[in-house]
Amino acid sequence: MTNDMTIRRATVADASSLAAISLEVWLNTYIRDGVNAFFADYALQHFTTARFEEILGDRNETVWVSQNVVGIDGFLRMSANSPAPVDIASDLEITTLYVQPRHHGRGLGKALLKTGLQFCLDTGQLGTWLAVNAENEKATAFYLASGFEMAGQTHFTIGDKAYPNHVLQFRLDR
């Protein structure tokens, strides 16, 4: 991690940057063989400034950003009252942890994750959970190396297509 990075709570003024990072990371991670209308329509409907303004105004949502001297290069979104698809004690979900690919390996993901785990402690949660695409081996390895454990399986659905996801949990009570 470099010294020119700050972790802070996101504000509504960050909504367009969060949308842009989401588009970049999601397309870069999951759409590797060419963009078709099916995935483009999904991304352009879900990763919008208006959607992030809505998220930032929701009391069940907490978003932190990693900001360098130029702008935002990553973010962590946690959703309260979000029951896991498998039997887990916590209903606090790590909904999104995105870091721009060119900033991977600088410790931004670790710093954001540490902030989220501290949030769990501060709010009295027993832990947190997340779902990660089963084919995203790099992200799965990152979470397992960070102390998460496999808790089950679920699917991410776009339209009538389902994609297998691992459900991982981090327990603070062990």
From TrEMBL:
Coiled coil: none annotated. It comes from the Bacteria. One of its GO terms (molecular function) is acyltransferase activity. Keywords: Acyltransferase, Plasmid, Transferase. Its EC number is 2.3.1.-. It is an enzyme of class 2 (transferase). It comes from Ensifer adhaerens. Residues 5-173 form the N-acetyltransferase domain. This is GNAT family N-acetyltransferase.
